[in-house]
């Protein structure tokens, strides 16, 4: 019999691994987006490469990574990070490029440096778009993390897999329901935050 404390522990572990992979991938995606703004010729190539990674099925990607990192959480986290790069990279690039040049001119007129314009004007204005990419990355990670059980990682996928092995519906649902709830709650919360930030940005 699976206890509530076991489900809670696995839910927390699932969320932690998903967040860790998403944060790592998002940082990489953000930094790459900032870099390709200075190298516009590479933008299409880099985004295209990230799109190729995104099209690789989760099981196949984890199988490749397993050869490098072995069994354990590291393989799953690296896989989630790779999946998180594209949405954040693409949205950050488009968000920063979409900032009205007039705002940059205002910053220059106030004597701001290029770095100050980036931190105080461009990033705040582009943040709702960046957050949309982060939302996609995190919700995707919640789902992909369920197959982490096949590479020796933890999380709610272990309950789903165990339930499938012994054909035990309650055990399988004990893993599937929290996964679905995590994805739904995070999707709603981040969508509401994104809309709120968009309204704040539009009122400026």
UniProtKB/TrEMBL annotation:
Keywords: Membrane, Transmembrane, Transmembrane helix, Transport. One of its GO terms (biological process) is glycine betaine transport. It is found in: Cell membrane; Membrane. It is a multi-pass membrane protein. InterPro entries: ABC_transp_perm/SBD (IPR051204), MetI-like (IPR000515), MetI-like_sf (IPR035906). The chain crosses the membrane at residues 15-36, 56-86, 138-161, 173-193. One of its GO terms (cellular component) is plasma membrane. The keyword Transmembrane applies. Residues 11-194 form the ABC transmembrane type-1 domain. Belongs to the binding-protein-dependent transport system permease family. This is Amino acid ABC transporter permease.
